[in-house]
Amino acid sequence: MIPRPDLTAIQKAAERIRPYIHRTPVCTSETLNGFCGGEVFLKCENFQKVGAFKARGATNAVFSLSDEEAAKGVLTHSSGNHAGALAWAAKTRGIKAEIVMPENAPTVKLNAVKGYGANVYLSKPTQAHREALAAEVAQKTGAKMVHPYNDHLVMAGQGTAALELLDQVADLDLVLAPVGGGGLMAGTALAVKGISEKIEVVGVEPLGSNFAWQSLQKGEIVPQKNPNTVADGLLTAPGNLTFPVLQEYVSHIVTVSDEEIISAMRIVWERMKIIIEPSSAVPVAGLLTKKVDLKGKRAGVIISGGNVDLASLPWN
């Protein structure tokens, strides 16, 4: 089994994926700073390949495969961004991708996956059913499973966004990221703490899908059950690989309501002219609501993606 990534593993992942991904920009806004009471630096993974940070983890996983493994293709189950990322990474390497997606996945994400040439299988919108269908597909095809978040190679790839952020912006006090299954959050925490123990790592999660928050409170993983949030990329619970990292390295997790998420998303669209999806707005909402205290501090925020169905904007 591949061990938990440390800073060296994340640095190696950065080298491995560099030829294929974007080094995304960091954007700032005086208006946003004023609202939050400190300095905010947005690491804009909405400008990443496939429109989300997921390209990093998927690319690291796909290009870590041996030629023999790659020949059988790759497989995942995902509500959207990881599905698109793995389909794109597989196409980039010239191998097959088998993707299980819930039937209620956003149309924009479903179309993107199909556009990359992947074979798509629609499941019921529950984690249990999509995992069961993925197991069936794996048995039929022999494809290598690349889990959306509970995978050390994926975690290492996601951590490269924070690695870039800390190279681009000096003297950060905090780094924030949205939390769903914990792949981005775990990778971010491992990268940040590998560079500086002084930087606080904070997660922000939708109130209607706050399984990581519940899990940290209880001291064990609380499984996903009936998530209900506009942040469709954050509908899952932490995995057995991501959760211990959250326990060890994440200072705390705060939760925000859908109303707060939509408000934050709209502010970024209107004031910064940047298209972000609801999941990306979650950590911004944590700052705007002052649930994360930023007074006199500098915060880096991982903006996770920008894949929005323009026909179904949440404020309409």
Automatic annotation (TrEMBL):
Transmembrane segments: none annotated. One of its GO terms (biological process) is D-serine biosynthetic process. Residues 17-305 form the Tryptophan synthase beta chain-like PALP domain. InterPro entries: Ser/Thr_deHydtase_PyrdxlP-BS, TrpB-like_PALP, TrpB-like_PALP_sf. The keyword Magnesium applies. The keyword Magnesium applies. Its cofactor is pyridoxal 5'-phosphate; Ca(2+); Mn(2+); Mg(2+). Gene3D superfamilies: 3.40.50.1100. Keywords: Lyase, Magnesium, Pyridoxal phosphate. One of its GO terms (molecular function) is pyridoxal phosphate binding. PROSITE patterns: DEHYDRATASE_SER_THR (PS00165). It comes from the Bacteria. Belongs to the serine/threonine dehydratase family. This is Serine/threonine dehydratase.
